[in-house]
Amino acid sequence: MQVILMSIKPKYAEQIIRGSKTVELRRVAPNLDKSAVILIYESAPVKAITGYAFISEITKSSPSEAWAQYAGKAQISKHDFDEYYQGTDQAFAIHLKEAARLLEPISLADLRSEQILFNPPQSYRYLHLQAFGEEIGQEIHAVRQRAAASC
């Protein structure tokens, strides 16, 4: 299973975990397949991995097309959207599903105690799920199995 750690502002991370934000907009898209999982790293002041979501699709468009199609699903203001996409002509929409909160958040301090040189990514970084312990892997696999059984 492909895994990325994605830095997300706390207000947006909470919306993803609650399920009201189903699209994460980015200027650069990760190279992932549809079964990939995103570990949600909430940036300051939280500074912890607090949840995860699965990718259902990644689409590319212009910023104006992305706004027209995904403004509601991305839960972002027009001002913040325009500021984020200023100076670029492409937008990537990462469609999310099956988002959930981790049973126990993993703090930045804990991450650094396990991986001495760990620094949160500015946007995202590719990971090996095993690096975050067996419990998280089991939790994510259990959610994936329940979702597959309900289809």
Give a quick set of tags describing it.
151 residues, alpha+beta, 35% helix
* C-alpha geometry: globular
> SS-based structural class?
alpha+beta
Q: Strand portion, in percent?
A: 25-35%
Largest sheet: 6 strands, mixed
From the alpha-carbon coordinates, what is the Rg to the nearest angstrom?
15 Å
Helical segment tally? Answer: 5
Distance between the termini: 20 Å
User: Which regions have little confidence, pLDDT < 50, spanning 5+ residues?
Assistant: none
Strand segment tally? 6
Order of helices and strands: EHEEEHHEHEH
The spatial strand order of the largest sheet comes to 2-5-4-3-1-6
Helix content: 25-40%
Q: Average the pLDDT over all residues and give the rounded result.
A: 86
Write up this protein.
The protein is of the alpha+beta class and 151 residues long. Helix content is 35%, strand content 34%. It has 5 helices and 6 strands, in the order βαβββααβαβα. It has helices at 10-18, 63-74, 78-85, 108-114, 134-150; strands spanning 3-8, 23-26, 37-42, 48-61, 91-107, 124-127. Strands 2-5-4-3-1-6 form a 6-stranded mixed β-sheet. A hairpin with a 5-residue loop joins strand 3 (37-42) and strand 4 (48-61). The mean pLDDT is 86. Residues 6-73 form the ASCH domain. This is ASCH domain-containing protein.
